[in-house]
Each structure stands twice: as structure tokens, then as C-alpha cells.
């Protein structure tokens, strides 16, 4: 994959085995929001997990959203225990770069987070986002309960309709339960990377197609507003 081969997800047998314990400690606090990165979280908050390309820019999208209590980046949907960034980028762990979003549903709904997710990347590109190529850049939603699963699936179906109308292809986003797909936090330097490095690489770029009315039961109609250019560099 590193030398131009088509990215392919490994099987559990092919994947790197990883390690029983992590090789680093996750920072205790979010550098922007000031809240704890790891749980347990305050009562009443909910957790959502999204993969939408390079997690540096993706995480910033969510921490800038009112009602989000904390965010952290990590690796999800693969087979390797406690993977490192280098292992994930090798394509031999099966993980995608993911953002964990802890939010107050009285201030921002899961449907609104889904709207942000869909509009912040191109979900039709398979194992890539723009010029970022690899299985770790695939689009994914990992749900924490049946309500999230229903909302994620409904939003995907609604977004497909307007993407098709705007001339885009088929959504490749997977919607899978988080309880069988461990979220492994990424290394400290990845957490809130763009706060520590304001001029750092951000590969986030959507299609320019909006999902206009976020609702778990009625997604309204969306309208094309132009196509965002693909990023020119990778991380």
C-alpha cells in the first residue's frame, strides 16, 4: 500500500497482533475545552464515534461545535490491540482514524453531529479522502445504541439521494456498532493536534452538498452548493 498498491483491509489473521498495554499515556485534559479526555464522563452526556479522513482536522470540526464536551482521536474498526500510528498507517491493523465526540444532547443532537460529519468529508471515496490514500482514511460511523444506528442509517440514505442528484457516486461509509470495535486512543501528539499546531495540515474537505435539516426521523431535503477541492497534501 505504501508503494502504490491498492489499499486492502487485512483479515484478522493477517493483521498485526499489537500489544496488551499501550506504549504511552493519554493526556488528562483537552487543550481547548479543558475537560477530561477519557471517561467516565458526567451523567447525561453521550458518546459518538466518527471516521472521516485525517483525524487532525476532523477533531477540530467537532471541538468547535457548541454542546461538545470533549473530543479525542484514536483508531477504531480494526483488529490490532493498542496500535501505534505507524502500524495503522501501514494498513496492517484494519483501523480507521476516528474521532470520539462526547456531547451534551440537550445542547447539540446526534443528528446535528451527523450533519456535520456528512458535510465535512466526501463519503464516496472508499479507502481515501482526497489525496490521503489508505484504509485508515475510510469513512465510518460507529454507533453506541440502536437510536444512533437508526439515525446514522437514515442520514446516510437521505444524503445518498442528494449526492446522487448532485452527480456524486455511492456512499461507502460503514455504519457499525462500537461495542465490538474498540476505540484505541492515539498518541498524545495527535490529541488536539491543530490546537498545538495551528498551521498544521488539515485534510478535511466536503463535497459542498448540504443536508439541510438534521432530524433522526425526517432529514428534509438537501441542496448542492458546489464541490470542495481535494486537499493537496497528506499526513
UniProtKB/TrEMBL annotation:
Q: Which UniProt keywords apply?
A: Oxidoreductase
EC number annotated for this UniProt entry: 1.8.4.11
Q: Which Pfam families match?
A: PMSR (PF01625)
- What is the species listed in this Swiss-Prot or TrEMBL entry? Streptomyces lasiicapitis
Which family does this protein fall into?
Answer: Belongs to the MsrA Met sulfoxide reductase family.
The answer to whether the entry has keyword Ion transport is no
Q: Where is the Peptide methionine sulphoxide reductase MsrA domain?
A: 49-202
Role summary: Has an important function as a repair enzyme for proteins that have been inactivated by oxidation. Catalyzes the reversible oxidation-reduction of methionine sulfoxide in proteins to methionine.
Q: What is the official name of this protein in its record? A: Peptide methionine sulfoxide reductase MsrA
Residues in the active site?
Answer: 54
**Region Disordered: which residues?**
216-235
Q: What class of enzyme is it?
A: oxidoreductase
User: What's the catalysed reaction?
Assistant: L-methionyl-[protein] + [thioredoxin]-disulfide + H2O = L-methionyl-(S)-S-oxide-[protein] + [thioredoxin]-dithiol; [thioredoxin]-disulfide + L-methionine + H2O = L-methionine (S)-S-oxide + [thioredoxin]-dithiol
Amino acid at each position: 500500500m505504501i508503494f502504490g498498491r491498492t489499499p486492502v483491509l487485512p483479515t484478522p489473521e493477517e493483521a498485526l497482533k499489537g500489544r496488551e498495554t499501550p506504549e504511552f499515556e493519554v493526556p488528562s485534559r483537552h487543550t481547548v475545552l479543558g475537560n477530561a479526555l477519557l471517561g467516565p464522563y458526567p451523567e447525561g452526556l453521550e458518546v459518538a464515534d466518527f471516521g472521516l479522513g485525517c483525524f487532525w482536522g476532523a477533531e477540530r470540526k467537532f471541538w468547535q461545535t457548541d454542546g461538545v464536551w470533549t473530543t479525542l482521536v484514536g483508531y477504531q474498526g480494526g483488529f490490532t490491540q493498542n496500535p501505534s500510528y505507524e502500524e495503522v498507517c501501514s494498513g496492517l491493523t484494519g483501523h480507521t482514524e476516528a474521532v470520539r465526540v462526547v456531547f451534551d444532547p440537550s445542547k447539540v443532537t446526534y443528528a446535528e453531529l451527523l450533519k456535520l460529519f456528512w458535510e465535512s468529508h466526501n463519503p464516496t471515496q472508499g479507502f481515501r479522502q482526497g489525496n490521503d490514500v489508505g484504509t485508515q482514511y475510510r469513512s465510518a460511523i460507529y454507533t453506541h445504541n440502536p437510536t444512533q444506528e437508526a439515525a446514522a442509517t437514515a442520514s446516510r440514505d437521505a444524503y445518498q439521494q442528494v449526492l446522487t442528484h448532485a452527480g456524486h457516486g455511492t456512499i461507502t461509509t460503514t455504519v457499525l456498532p462500537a461495542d465490538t470495535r474498540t476505540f484505541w486512543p492515539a498518541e498524545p501528539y495527535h490529541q488536539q493536534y491543530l490546537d498545538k499546531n495551528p498551521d498544521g495540515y488539515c485534510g478535511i474537505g466536503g463535497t459542498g452538498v448540504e443536508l439541510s435539516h438534521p432530524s433522526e426521523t425526517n432529514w428534509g431535503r438537501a441542496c448542492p452548493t458546489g464541490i470542495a477541492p481535494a486537499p493537496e497534501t497528506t499526513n
